[in-house]
Structure to design on (237 residues):
């Protein structure tokens, strides 16, 4: 749906996706085996790897005859990537892998795990792309977009929002395999803890698409001077 919407708006798209659900793959690259790409009748490529693998191959020109794309749009993911979700998200990670390109990379998710309105999210991204050239953002910025699963004409608009936060997730579920050995299922994510006005949680809950600029630099710059003083005081000896 996303590719169809973007191509209808005049964009040339190369679609590369994992050959199966790779939710929560985060930024992992496959380094222990070669990757296989299968071209489908649609022209889309399926890769037996992670979302990051797909973008890494695409940006390197592996499938585009040396032509480097100018932007990466990752998604549409079925299920929200709000707040702390971005740490684990394969969708956001794929956009992050495109951060070296000239324009901001975009990750887009619809907040329902069984969405009925993919076109709403696709139209939000399409409209965003028409204005992206005039957007003055620092290099290597990733735009994380979450869209309510509602018809486009019911969407109230788009709100710029910061990441909210979740409570800790549910405890892992213990199960026995057919041979009686204990195994563990990772359980559900935690409920929203910081979801007030101004957060991505609040925006989508109130009928808006949220857009959050993410940075790759994870340095806590406000703590640098304190850490330097601590080291100079002899604590690091």
């Amino acid at each position: 749906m996303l590719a169809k919407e973007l191509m209808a708006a005049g964009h040339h798209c190369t679609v590369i996706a994992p050959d199966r659900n790779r939710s929560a793959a985060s930024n992992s690259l496959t380094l222990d085996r070669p990757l296989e790409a299968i071209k489908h009748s649609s022209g889309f490529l399926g890769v037996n790897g992670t979302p990051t693998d797909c973008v890494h191959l695409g940006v390197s020109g592996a499938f585009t005859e040396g032509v480097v794309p100018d932007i990466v749009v990752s998604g549409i993911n079925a299920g929200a990537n709000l707040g702390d979700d971005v740490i684990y998200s394969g969708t956001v990670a794929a956009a992050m892998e495109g951060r070296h390109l000239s324009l901001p990379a975009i990750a887009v998710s619809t907040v329902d795990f069984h969405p009925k309105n993919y076109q709403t999210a696709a139209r939000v991204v399409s409209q965003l792309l028409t204005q992206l050239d005039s957007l003055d953002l620092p290099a290597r910025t990733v735009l994380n977009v979450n869209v309510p699963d509602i018809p486009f004409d019911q969407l109230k608009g788009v709100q710029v929002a910061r990441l909210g936060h979740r409570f800790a997730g549910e405890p892992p579920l213990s199960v026995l395999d057919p041979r009686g050995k204990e195994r563990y299922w990772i359980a559900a994510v935690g409920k929203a803890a910081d979801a007030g006005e101004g957060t991505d949680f609040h925006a989508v809950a109130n009928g808006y698409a949220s857009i959050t600029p993410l940075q790759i630099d994870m340095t806590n710059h406000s703590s640098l001077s304190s850490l330097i003083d601590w080291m100079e005081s002899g604590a690091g000896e």
